[in-house]
Amino acid sequence: MSSPVRAIINVDVEGPTISRHVYGHFAEHLGRCIYGGFYVGEDSEIPNEGGIRLDVVEALRALKIPNLRWPGGCFADEYHWMDGIGPKEDRPAMVNTHWGNVEENNHFGTHEFMALCELLGADPYVNGNVGSGTVREMADWVEYLTRDGDSPMVRLRKQNGRDEPWRVPFWGIGNEAWGCGGNMSAQHYAEEARRYATYCRDHGDNTLYRIAAGANSDDYVWTETLMKALNELGGCGRDPRGIYQAISVHYYTIPGTWADKGNATEFGEDEYYTTMVKAAFTDELLRKHSTVMDCYDPDRKVGLVLDEWGTWWNVEPGTNPGFLYQQNTMRDALVASLHFDIFHRHAERLVMANIAQTVNVLQAMILTDPETGALVLTPTYHVFAMNAGHQDAASLRVDTVGEVPAREVGSEKLETVSVSASRKGDDVLISLSNLDASEATEVDVDLRGGAAGAVHARILTADALAAHNTSASPDAVAPRDHLDVQVTDTGVRVPMPPHSFVTVAVSVA
Ligand code: AHR
């Protein structure tokens, strides 16, 4: 066992609020995410409402899913929303050139997505098409979705069966404009983003939070270019947030190369630690993008949105390489728990994050069997569930005393214990990850500024890092009560087995 870690939390000193939207999700027309994942059609034997799988809805409601980004991803920049409204039999098909070159029948469109969000109780985050669309097309979509009264788009919406406007809080101005979204330069995209965002109007009392398509990972120049473009418009006393209110960034955890990313379930310790180093890089990534933004926006009014993150492995053998279907192990769970600690620490600037993707694609919450339709919850799902109490809670700073156990990984040092905490009313939630593959540890948490009352601890771990859930064995990795956590004179003592994730809910007076 590595030496115990001492962590101090002042429960009466509240930091910035952790937006619930950092627990956000992403659903693209990619592989079996929409079709077979969220949507099975009304004639399916799988219980559904308007074609939307009710078991998927129930599982995501249990996570308090705060928002859902749609329709892409790369797909967003070749999606023409008018093809996805009206009677299904009249909707034109298209080829999904990004993902498997399969035919998209457009049966899941705007009305189906909004119905899904209503069932989930999640805020819609619609991503508009800049790459192959037009300003008018995007402006019309906003009008169709959010305008009340009478107008050409309102009449069209009513004709398609929906009288009331929907609320759409989040709007994406394209996706990955540096790549699949149009291969643009930063400067060119910044000008396009200003132009498109101008015509994404606030109709009635629907106020859009417009998110400009951001950097590929550590391309800080991209962020700077978008911040400069905002600042130029704010130069004459105008509020720069009037154009776009946030900038996104995408970062995936890949231990290998894009050509050979690594196997989802077969990996050694070295590859595991490399994965964790890559995941831990998210802290530096968010810090540096925030620093660039601080130069132009010291009051932190412009938000940073990590609207694609997660692990990306080689696809499962025998599946369509364009469908990005991968298994999800205890390693993925720790990638998620580490990300959340980082997100909590960046609460002041990070307003949203969306894991890619919710069902059957990349680091999913849910896997469904294409033959039987059976649903499996992944280890990553359980991390989201155990951490749900952090949503909209005040972040609490965690200070460690002395050395934190660490591993040398190539030229990098990986601290193997990660802790974050938050407070909502009298409830303090502490999340702890032991990233060490083979060593147990113990974390002594001093809770200062409040007396600890009732404690409820949960643990997620498994015999092997590669352990995962299948329909034959759906609970191979599942949380259970962690009865070994002790209340001490100063707080709580938390034993941490190797590769484990623990949450401790403490009520403080
Ligand atoms: O999430 C899969 C793809 O990854 C998205 O479509 C794209 O934005 C990113 O490159």
What does this structure look like?
The protein has 509 residues and is of the alpha/beta class. It folds into two domains: 5-11 and 395-508, Immunoglobulin-like (Sandwich), CATH 2.60.40; 19-392, TIM Barrel (Alpha-Beta Barrel). It has nine helices and 26 strands. The mean pLDDT is 96. It binds alpha-L-arabinofuranose (AHR). Alpha-L-arabinofuranose binds at residues 28, 72-74, 175-176, 308, 356-357, 362.
In short:
The protein is an alpha/beta fold and 509 residues long. The chain folds into 2 domains: 5-11 and 395-508, Immunoglobulin-like (Sandwich), CATH 2.60.40.1180; 19-392, Glycosidases (TIM Barrel, Alpha-Beta Barrel), CATH 3.20.20.80. 24% of the residues lie in helices and 29% in strands.
Classified in CATH, the superfamily of the largest domain is Glycosidases
Structural class: alpha/beta
CATH architecture descriptor name of the largest domain: Alpha-Beta Barrel
Strand order of the biggest β-sheet: 23-22-26-20-19-16-1-21-25-24
Principal-axis shape equals globular
Strand proportion: 25-35%
The rounded distance between the terminal residues' Cα atoms is: 33 Å
* Count of domain modules: 2
Tags for this entry?
single chain, about 500 residues, alpha/beta, Immunoglobulin-like, TIM Barrel, 2 domains, ten-stranded mixed beta sheet, eight-stranded parallel beta barrel, 9 helices, binds alpha-L-arabinofuranose
